[in-house]
Design goal:
single chain, mainly alpha, elongated
Length: about 160
């Protein structure tokens, strides 16, 4: 049969051996020891940081001229794409007769998408303009007041002089 392995309970023996520090000097000595052990864990931190900086520098120096040129080309491509999109937006806005503020609202990655968005914007703007101003003294309804008895009553109620 299998033998049972027993392990001594280490926590009980440590708990039994522990004594509270009797003086402030004993407590300070315990704390100093603990702090020294923690500081020892991070003693080489400055050396590790220095090595990492050296590694980064070596990596940068180790890049070939081709790698450096590829990095510059990638940055240029990103900038060119951004400027091309801005130019397309401005051209579409100019052709469609939009203001610079309205041109900023155009959305799309291709010229066709920008033109379609500009057409939608112009359609919405014309629809808003066709509604006309909403001043209180202007009639905004196309219906005849006689069709709605409440409307006729309200207009008669507020007529002056009769």
């Amino acid at each position: 049969m299998a033998e049972e392995v027993t392990t001594p309970d280490v926590t009980e023996s440590k708990a039994d051996d522990w004594k509270a520090p009797a003086t402030q000097d004993e407590l300070n000595h315990i704390i100093e020891g603990r702090l020294a052990r923690e500081r020892a864990k991070f003693a080489d931190y400055d050396a590790v940081v220095a090595k990492a900086a050296e590694f980064d520098k070596a990596q940068e120096e180790g890049k070939t001229e081709l790698q450096k040129a590829l990095d510059v080309a990638a940055a240029s491509k990103t900038e060119t794409t951004t400027e091309r999109e801005r130019a397309n937006r401005a051209e579409v806005a100019l052709v469609k007769g939009l203001t610079p503020t309205q041109a900023k609202r155009l959305v799309g990655s291709t010229r066709e998408e920008l033109e379609a968005d500009a057409d939608e914007l112009l359609k919405d703007l014309k629809a808003d303009a066709s509604r006309g101003p909403r001043a209180p003294h202007q009639k905004t309804s196309q219906s005849d007041p006689k069709d709605d008895p409440m409307r006729e009553f309200a207009q008669n109620l507020f007529k002056s002089g009769e």
